[in-house]
Design brief:
Chains A, B: It comes from Brevundimonas faecalis. Chains A, B: Keywords: Signal. Chains A, B: InterPro entries: Cyclase_SnoaL-like, NTF2-like_dom_sf, SnoaL-like. Chains A, B: This is SnoaL-like aldol condensation-catalyzing enzyme. 2 copies of one chain form a homodimer. By secondary structure, chain A is α+β, with helices and mostly antiparallel strands. The first copy, chain A, has a single domain, classed as Roll (Nuclear Transport Factor 2, Chain: A), CATH 3.10.450.50. Helices cover 31% and strands 30% of the residues of chain A. The first copy, chain A, has 4 helices and 5 strands, in the order αααβαββββ. A 5-stranded mixed sheet of chain A has the order 1-5-4-3-2.
């Protein structure tokens, strides 16, 4: 919880202190990794400074598993510098930060505009010595309606 | 690592001891939750016993965030009992188990047949008192080729 509140403060978010994410038992390294990844993500995807974020937080190598993107930090920030020029309202809301060992998973709602149903994303980052060195993700379009009355993100809302 | 090896033994998998998943620092509760979720997943999606898995591992309530599925365990096992009759070769390979507090995330490759490129999935489960009570997921089709030469799952394979 401590780390989530720190991240929430850093990100200016209100969605992190949900019941679903209220319990954590992170080691000091896991808490540090969670903070690094949350700061990286906020700088890149909300402050729209992907090049600066990469310089601060990505290691000398960056192994990419998003199937559309080449390896290396330059491919990441090169793409998103252009993307944010075309999508200045783009936002990423982090709903969950799940840190275990050298991995940090983020459960994210990405939107190009405030009205965009957007995409559900889980990003998994691997860290070495405080730097992000590897990235996996899974991305799905968010539908406008659901069969259960819940969103894809909000926790503990149904009975 | 200990938990991953236990899970690997339980699941009969060889893909879990990758460099990307080699480090963990789970509390006893996190390790127990990881084991519960891995056992549930293997019983449901590899041994094709979703009803039995739900009875053993899902709590009195089950809050569903997959947008296509109603709340409750019955909607889950009712669908998959039929699915596995139609897809007897269906398999789910767990590549990463990420446990933090009351949450366990699985990074999974789901295939309907051995030749199926399949789907990349991250399932996030929340547990209360050793029972699964809430589920989120993100699902994406796996392409046959990638821009980086890596799969969506295998860790630490590039440069």
């Amino acid at each position: 919880m401590k780390t989530l509140l720190i991240a929430a403060t850093a990100l200016g978010l209100t969605a992190l202190s949900t019941p679903a994410a209220a319990q954590t038992d992170q080691s000091p390294t896991e808490a540090a990794n969670a903070r690094i990844v949350a700061d990286f993500y906020d700088m890149a995807f909300n402050r729209h400074q992907p090049t600066q974020a990469a310089r601060l937080y990505i290691g000398d190598r960056y192994i990419q598993h998003n199937p559309a993107v080449p390896n290396g930090a330059a491919a990441f920030y090169g793409y998103f510098e252009g993307f944010f020029k075309d999508h200045p309202q783009s936002r990423a809301t982090i709903h969950r930060v799940i840190a275990d060992g050298d991995l940090v998973a983020l459960h994210v709602h990405s939107q190009e505009t405030p009205d965009d149903p957007g995409r559900a994303i889980v990003d998994i980052f691997r860290l070495e010595n405080g730097k992000i060195v590897e990235h996996f993700d899974v991305i799905q379009a968010v539908p406008r309606t659901t069969a259960n009355g819940n969103t894809m993100f909000d926790g503990d809302k149904a009975d």
